[in-house]
Amino acid sequence: MGKPVSQRQLLAVKLEALNESEVCEVLDYISTMESRPARTAPSAGDDEVLTALADARENRRARQAFEWEVVRRKAEKRAAAKGVRADLNA
Hints:
This protein is an all-alpha fold. The chain has helices at about 5-15, 20-35, 50-55, 55-90.
């Protein structure tokens, strides 16, 4: 049997298969993830119900969908800007 592939190796293989535009989108997503505040353990003063709701699966999915939408819009703007530049150079 083959040696199991690590998460990093799998990521590297997937990145190699992407085109330049998709790589830019991934980098935008990573910068978005890095700019988010780090999660900290809730302090004793935090409301447990609010904390539970904020970490609910639906909210995590909604945040992820919003972040992908932001990345998609940036990619569209970048593509439109490249198209305008290409038209000006023609």
